[in-house]
């Protein structure tokens, strides 16, 4: 078996924890690849709430989902830091994914930021169900990326062990700063 890259492993982790019928979140919709993956995981009775700040991303993802006949998704043109405004108060969340950094092929100045990523995570944590998982695919090679990673690592390492399992999955001998994973699971 070849060890999976971060993107593949993010899906492996979600596939192992998210259940059919779950309410899940794609915090960085982009072109909608993860939205579509989550949609298939939760099935027709589940729901995917997706966020992106770029009109082009929401449009591109909407087209992808429509072309594939997907109807269990709700895409929001807003930052994920506003998640609590869109999450019903008593809604439990089975899982979430953040694909950090910038959208390939789009404006490289529109990047995720530590403060807003943390605000989103803090908004989601109280809603996570037991064994529910937040997966962060962390890119840090671009300007601003390392600042975001530092904030995320400081936050994630300080989460109480009694309440959360926190995982880092990273190839440590590769060149060009490949993405890695931080995953937070509610115990
Ligand atoms: C690496 S891309 C996501 C790729 C996506 N998962 C896909 O399948 O194509 C990161 C995305 O995060 C978005 N983004 C940046 N800041 C954001 C924020 N505060 N809230 C939501 N999305 C944000 C960007 O517009 C960009 O589309």
From TrEMBL:
Pfam families associated with the record? rRNA_methylase (PF06962)
* Keyword Transferase set for record: yes
* Membrane-crossing residue ranges in chain numbering: none
Stretch forming the signal peptide:
none
Q: Which GO terms describe its biological process?
A: methylation
Q: Does the keyword Transferase apply?
A: yes
Q: Which key words are in the record?
A: Methyltransferase, Transferase
Top-level taxon of the source organism? Bacteria
Return the InterPro entries for the record: MnmM_MeTrfase (IPR010719), SAM-dependent_MTases_sf (IPR029063)
SUPFAM superfamilies per the record? S-adenosyl-L-methionine-dependent methyltransferases
Molecular function GO labels: methyltransferase activity
Provide the protein name. Methyltransferase domain-containing protein
Naturally occurring in which organism (per UniProt): Periweissella fabalis
């Amino acid at each position: 078996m070849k060890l999976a890259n971060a993107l593949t492993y993010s899906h492996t982790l979600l596939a192992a924890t998210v259940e059919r019928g779950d309410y899940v979140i794609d915090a960085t919709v982009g072109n909608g690849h993860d939205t579509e993956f989550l949609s298939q995981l939760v099935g027709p009775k589940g729901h995917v709430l997706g966020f992106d700040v770029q009109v082009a991303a929401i449009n591109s993802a909407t087209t992808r989902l429509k072309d594939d006949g997907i109807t269990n998704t709700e895409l929001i043109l807003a930052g994920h830091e506003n998640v609590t405004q869109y999450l019903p108060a008593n809604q439990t969340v089975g899982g979430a994914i953040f694909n950090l950094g910038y959208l390939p092929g789009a404006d490289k100045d529109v990047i995720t930021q530590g403060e807003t990523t943390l605000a989103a995570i803090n908004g989601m944590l109280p809603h996570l169900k037991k064994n529910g998982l937040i997966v962060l695919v962390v890119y840090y090679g671009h300007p601003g990326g390392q600042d975001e990673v530092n904030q995320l690592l400081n936050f994630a390492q300080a989460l109480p062990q009694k309440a959360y399992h926190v995982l880092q999955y990273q190839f440590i001998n590769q060149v060009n700063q490949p993405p890695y994973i931080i995953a937070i699971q509610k115990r």
